[in-house]
Amino acid sequence: MAVGLPENIFITRLDAAANWARSNSLWPMPFATACCGIELMATAASRHDLARFGAEVMRFSPRQCDLLIVAGRVVMKMLPVLQRIWLQMPEPKWCISMGACACSGGVFDTYAVVQGVDRFIPVDMYVPGCPPRPEQLLAAVIDMQEKVRRTGTVMGREFAARDTSSGPTPFDLQEEHRIEDASLIQLGGFSAAATTMKRDA
Amino acid sequence: MVSLEELQSRFGEEIREKTFRDNRFIDVSSGVLLDVLSGLKADFGFSMLIDITAIDWLDYEGATDRFSVVYLLLNVETGERLTIRTAVNLPDPQLPSVCALWMSADWLEREVYDMFGISFSDHPDLRRILMPEEFAAFPLRKDYPLKGRGERHNFPVITRSEG
Fold this sequence. Notes:
The complex is a heterodimer of chains A (201) and B (163).
Chain A: H1 14-23, E1 28-32, H2 36-44, E2 67-71, H3 79-88, E3 94-98, H4 99-104, E4 125-127, H5 134-151, H6 157-160, H7 173-188, H8 192-200
Parallel strand pairs in A: 1-2, 2-3, 3-4
Chain B: H1 4-11, E1 16-20, E2 23-27, H2 33-44, E3 48-56, E4 67-74, E5 81-88, E6 94-96, H3 105-116, E7 119-121
Parallel strand pairs in B: 2-5, 6-7
Antiparallel strand pairs in B: 1-2, 3-4, 4-5
């Protein structure tokens, strides 16, 4: 039985229609704390033109955004702010971790710098580089669109399933060793080199 | 130029001077520090405090004191610069605040307090300035590990389903 439809009507699934709309109008929340922010601005500017992918509407209020771009290193004092911004963003939302510092702490392996934001907030896409070129961020946005189209559901069911953190645990083995060393230093007044040598021996 | 003799006659004989490449360093004991600094401001025209910082001499060869606190002064009339150094030690490293002399000392002393744990008596608002309030250590002390004691990893983890 043939169904007669006018020319400008087609049939699809609701999920696919929602994903199509969402993936082509990602509104980024720029969380730019360092030099990656400059590349982020370059990505949005005319030469690289993020608008070609529908993601040029940078909003500086998390309430209006659905894509968090963490661009730059995040220190201890900034992490609670980042977490609050993430929680303030409405569903559905995604996160791109841009640059070596946001992904892993980069060269800033110091007492104050968080060693990767994925330890504390969920991250969907990582962009390597120091800083990454605008093309790399564009590639990440395109991949992000692909991921939204592939996994998205209109009610966001795919998010509810992700109830365990996919990032590294906040305390890794090395961290435990270091804290052990630190408490030894505190107690006995050993120099750091001496305790490290003792453990290696 | 402030002469050493003039300072010694006013503030005591134990004041020492050292020169390195046209930079003059005056070593004073912490007891007379406030007298020396207020005298330098009032009578020798050092109207500007450039910086206050500290040095941790832990494990340094030949060091006699744990910390040095360094005051960089500038006479804006003559362009003369002077570095005043004083020593403080554990367990209670404390110096008088110079906020009453130079307003710029406010944040500088807070920074020294934050990083080295040297407190300044009579400071109007001695809180941490760089590190978070709940941070318990003094990170620029030499016995503090470069990568911290795990403070940077001490945050709640937000998973995707709860955000």
